[in-house]
Amino acid sequence: MKINDILARLGIEINNQGTSTGINKLPGNGPVISSYSPVNGKLIAHVESTDTEGYETVMQQAQKAFLHWRSVPAPKRGDMVRQFGDALRENKEDLGALVSYEMGKSLQEGMGEVQEMIDICDFALGLSRQLYGLTMHSERLNHRMYEQWHPLGIVSIISAFNFPVAVWAWNTALAWVCGNVCVWKPSSKTPLCAVACQNIVAKVLKANNLPEGICNLVTGNACGNLMNEDKRVSLVSFTGSTKIGRLVSSAVAGRFGRSILELGGNNAIIISESADLEMSVIGAVFGAVGTAGQRCTSTRRLIIHESVYNDFTAKLVKAYAQIKIGDPLNEHNHMGPLIDKDAVRAYLNSIEKVKQQGGRFIVEGGVLDGSGLESGCYVKPCIAEVEYHFEIVQEETFAPLLYVMKYSTIDQAIQMQNDVPQGLSSAIMTLNLREAEQFLSSAGSDCGIANVNIGTSGAEIGGAFGGEKETGGGRESGSDAWKGYMRRQTNTINYSNALPLAQGIKFDL
Fold first, then answer.
1. Element at 271 (helix H, strand E)
2. Which of 433, 328, 63, 315 is nearest to 211 (CA)?
3. The whole model's pTM is what?
4. Strand, coil or helix: 150
5. Residues facing residue 147 across a β-bridge
6. How would you classify the pairing of strands 486-494 and 449-452?
7. 158/334 Cα distance (integer angstroms)
8. Three-class SS state of 316
9. For 313-334, what is the mean pLDDT?
10. Is 182 assigned a catalytic role?
């Protein structure tokens, strides 16, 4: 794969200094961000970050664009999103390869991430004709009441490295059809994916004679702080750690802004005594090692019935022995690298904590070396036997570290599943209808996502995505998540020749 050829087709040229340039040069002259590929440790390109002056230029551009965009009929806004989806189809292979190379996920997952972008564009196109309000009966004679939804204004999207393009698209496609304009601050670990997306959007906007400020890109962590404090930003959608999410939530709430928070996950699969064990192994392995365990929905915990514990863990160990680790652009490999050496250090620290707290590894971890693994970011997926109350088990480890533990009753299993601070995704593997229904009931999983006979990862865009507790409570993507990007307005129309007051109040003059 010739990465510079891929970048060029995505509108990114690399100059002699190794700095990227695109159709729209990024505003500002802040510190340089260097993007290194975890695949081989090589520098891909430098990207200039946005300074304060550049940020202000972007915000003024966004404000001006909003005044135009909010007046464009929603179906026409949807048609622009459709064209963006078509452009993604044309660039799917190149953008998917760039995602794989810059982030380190498998090529199949990189392509799948771009497909998610295409899917949300299709969803948003249909939604553009379905931004429904309600009509209500008034208690006053010859009055009519209804509610309608209006755009908020500027929506800022702060995205994470693990899904460098899809999560932005989830937010942006919905925000656009709702009449908002967007300012995107991507992860500084994957800036080139964002530049590529900006270039694709820019062509669509230009072809439709639309203002560039409908879609804006800023880079550098300083911009995230600026947006959190900026009263011109109506909504901040933040994807990242619980620690940073608390800071975002506090800053935005302090100015009475809105936020959508997609934070940590500590996701569990309950393996029932009536589970299909072969199917359960597939779900558990993909959930734990897909994207090298760097999904917010990655499977962190397996809660296994004591009667099938030995049999299931034996199958699991056998499956782990077959995992192929290496260059993610090689489709024969199942798992690529962690994002960088900081992530590797965090992974190794978590392994040490497991041992210190009394855990026992049934599949050992460690850093891999050898031909093709020179970046130092490739690690072994590992499995540890633990007690559910261990301190380390209560935390989210963003790496392929899987915990296994036993349970004896379904009530105990659900309690163990829920007894962590996070509440994103959950699953039960069972052929017992009563167990499945209990797990999905109000007395069951306390997560925003609860599955039966599928794993914790692989959410579809048709459903609202998000979680509870320290996951932040936000919702993105499908269902009625669009309402989070709009403001509700209740309207009353009096078509009589009198002015009756509500609740029969008399106020005669």
1. strand 267-271
2. 63
3. 0.95
4. strand
5. 490
6. unpaired
7. 29
8. helix
9. 96
10. no
193 is catalytic: no
**Given 48, 262, 273, 476, the catalytic residue:** 262
Q: Can you read off the two tokens belonging to residue 162?
A: 């693990």
Q: Burial letters for 327-339: b for 16+ Cβ neighbours within 10 Å, e otherwise?
A: bbbeeebbbbbbb
Task: Compute the distance between CA of residue 281 and CA of residue 419 in angstroms, rounded to an integer.
Answer: 23
The answer to whether 213 and 181 have CB atoms below 8 angstroms apart is: yes
- The strand pairing partners of 237, in sequence order, are 157, 260
Q: Which one, of 452, 459, 461, 455, lies nearest residue 267 by Cα?
A: 455
What is the C-alpha separation between 290 and 105, in angstroms, rounded? Answer: 8
Cβ neighbours of 458 (radius 10 Å) = 15
Look up residue 452 and give its two tokens.
Answer: 């039966």
Q: Over the stretch 282-315, which tens digit does the pLDDT of each residue have?
A: 999 999 999 999 999 999 999 999 999 999 999 9
Question: What residue type is assigned to position 212 of the chain?
Answer: E
Instruction: Determine contact, residues 484/475, Cβ cutoff 8 Å.
Output: yes
Structure tokens at 299: 């499977």
> DSSP letters of 386-446?
--TT-TGGGS---SSEEEEEEESSHHHHHHHHH-SSEESEEEEE-S-HHHHHHHHSTTS--
User: What is the number of residues in the chain?
Assistant: 509
Look at strands 258-262 and 233-239 and give their pairing.
Answer: parallel
Measured CA to CA, the distance from residue 221 to residue 4 in angstroms comes to: 26
Give the number of other Cβ atoms within 10 Å of residue 419's Cβ: 13
On average, the pLDDT of the chain sits at 95
Tracing tokens 């090689």 back to the chain, one arrives at 330
Terminal C-alpha separation, the chain: 82
pLDDT in tens, 439-495: 999 999 999 999 999 999 988 999 999 999 999 999 999 999 999 999 999 999 999
pLDDT by residue (tens digit) across 167-176? Answer: 999 999 999 9
E strand or H helix that includes residue 449: strand 449-452
Counting beta carbons within 10 angstroms of the beta carbon of residue 200, is it exposed (0 to 12), middle (13 to 18) or buried (19 or more)?
Answer: buried
Q: Who's near 498: CB < 8 A, 6+ residues apart? A: none
Q: How many C-beta atoms surround the C-beta of residue 507 within 10 A?
A: 6
Q: Say which residue the tokens 């199949």 belong to.
A: 108
Query: H or E stretch including 113?
Result: helix 107-127
Which is catalytic among the residues 193, 197, 223, 296?
A: 296
| Closest to 122 in 3D by CA, of 451, 485, 475, 460 | 460
Question: For residue 303, what are the contacts with CB-CB under 8 A and spacing of at least 6?
Answer: 268, 269, 270, 271, 388, 405, 406, 407, 413, 416, 417
Distance CA 347, CA 293 (A): 10
Q: Are 456 and 472 in contact (CB under 8 A)?
A: no
Nearest CA-CA partner of 170 in 86, 252, 113, 97: 113
Q: Where are the alpha helices (DSSP H) in 147-237?
A: 166-177, 191-207, 221-229
